[in-house]
Design goal:
Blueprint: E1 23-24, H1 30-38, E2 41-46, H2 55-62, H3 75-80, H4 82-85, H5 87-90, H6 92-107, H7 109-130, E3 133-137, H8 154-157, E4 163-168, E5 187-192, H9 199-207, E6 212-217, E7 236-239, E8 243-249, E9 264-268, H10 274-283, E10 287-288
Helix pairs in contact: 2-6, 6-7
C-alpha cells in the first residue's frame, strides 16, 4: 500500500524506516495532483528532503557533511525552492517523513531500492487493475540519477513504464549520468534553467530536441502564495539564434512525457512569502514575463 505524505507508523517497521515508505500516491502531493485534475493520468512520486529542507538533520543522521539531494542546485534555486518553502513542507509530519526517507536511502540504500521497486510494481498492478494511465516522478524534490547502476537502474528495471523528472540544465552533457546517451528511452527529462544558465544554453538544449523549464514572474503585487497562479506566461521567447520560440504552460500538468520535444516549459514563480519571491527575482532565477511581449 502507499502512505500519505506524512508516512505511516507501523510497529513492525523500526528505526529510520518508520514513516519512510518511498512512494506517495498522486493525491498526496500538490505537484502531482494537478496532473490527475487535468488529465486521465496518475503520477506516483518520491519526495525526499530537498536541499533546503532539514539538511542539517539529514547530514547529522547520515554522517555525510557534504550530503545533498540536489547536487546541481544553484544559489537562486535554493533561495526560491518552492519545495522547502511550501506550506506542505512546513508541516512537522511531512518534514519528518521526507527526512526519514532521505536518511533511509543514505544509510540503507539497497534496502530502500528494493522497497522502491516493490512499490513501483504495486502501483503498476493497481493501474492495470483499475485501468488508469500511470507515470512516475522519482525526483519530486531532488536530483538523483535513479537510472544509474548505483541507484538501482530503476527505469530500466521497468521498461514498459514511463518515468519523467526535472533536472538542472547545467548538468546536461556535462555531468556523470546526465549525458543524453546515458538516459533510458522510458525516462523523459525536462531540463530546468537556473540563473547560472544563459539563453545560449537553453537554445543548445532545444537544438538537441530537449525541453527546458523556465520560471517566469510578473511585476504586480500579491503574487506570493495562491496569487502566483494569477501570473501570465509569455507565449514565445526570443532566443539568440532560433528567434521566437513557443512556450507551453507547465502548470496545467506536471507530466512531461507527452509534451512535444524541444519546447520551453513555462512555470510561474511560486513562493510562500513575498520575501522568498523577492530573493528569487533578485537572483535571476526567475525571468520577468514582461521582457517577452506575447502573453498566453
Amino acid at each position: 500500500f502507499f502512505q500519505a505524505e506524512d508516512g505511516i507508523r507501523d510497529s513492525s517497521v523500526t528505526g529510520v524506516q518508520t514513516c519512510a515508505l518511498p512512494i506517495s500516491p498522486p493525491e498526496s502531493n500538490v505537484k502531482l495532483s494537478k496532473t490527475a485534475a487535468n488529465t486521465e493520468t496518475r503520477v506516483f512520486g518520491l519526495s525526499l528532503a530537498a536541499h533546503n529542507l532539514a539538511r542539517n538533520e539529514v547530514r547529522h543522521a547520515t554522517g555525510e557533511q557534504h550530503f545533498t539531494t540536489c547536487p546541481d542546485s544553484s544559489p537562486g534555486c535554493r533561495a526560491a525552492c518552492c519545495v522547502a518553502s511550501s506550506a506542505q513542507a512546513q508541516l512537522d509530519s511531512v518534514r519528518a517523513a521526507r527526512v526519514r526517507k532521505t536518511v533511509f536511502l543514505q544509510t540503507h540504500r539497497q534496502q530502500f531500492i528494493r522497497l522502491l521497486k516493490s512499490e513501483i510494481q504495486q502501483a503498476a498492478d493497481l493501474a492495470a487493475y483499475y485501468g488508469f494511465r500511470i507515470r512516475f516522478r522519482l525526483n519530486v524534490d531532488s536530483s538523483i540519477p535513479w537510472h544509474s547502476e548505483e541507484y538501482g537502474s530503476i527505469p530500466q528495471t521497468f521498461p514498459d513504464l514511463e518515468f519523467y523528472d526535472y533536472h538542472p540544465l547545467r548538468a546536461l552533457n556535462s555531468r556523470r549520468h546526465w549525458r543524453l546517451s546515458d538516459l533510458p528511452q522510458n525516462l523523459r527529462i525536462c531540463w530546468s534553467r537556473k540563473e547560472t544558465d544563459s539563453w545560449h544554453h537553453v537554445e543548445s538544449a532545444i537544438s538537441d530536441l530537449q525541453s527546458v523549464a523556465v520560471v517566469f514572474h510578473d511585476d504586480r503585487p500579491g503574487r506570493a502564495g495562491r496569487g502566483a497562479y494569477g501570473q501570465q506566461l509569455p507565449r514565445f521567447v526570443e532566443l539568440p539564434s532560433l528567434g521566437r520560440w513557443p512556450v507551453i504552460d507547465g502548470d496545467t500538468s506536471d507530466d512531461r512525457t507527452t509534451d512535444p520535444r524541444g519546447l520551453i516549459v513555462g512555470l510561474r514563480l511560486k513562493s510562500r512569502s513575498e520575501e522568498i519571491r523577492a530573493a528569487a527575482i533578485r537572483s535571476g532565477f526567475s525571468v520577468p514575463n514582461f521582457l517577452h511581449p506575447c502573453i498566453l
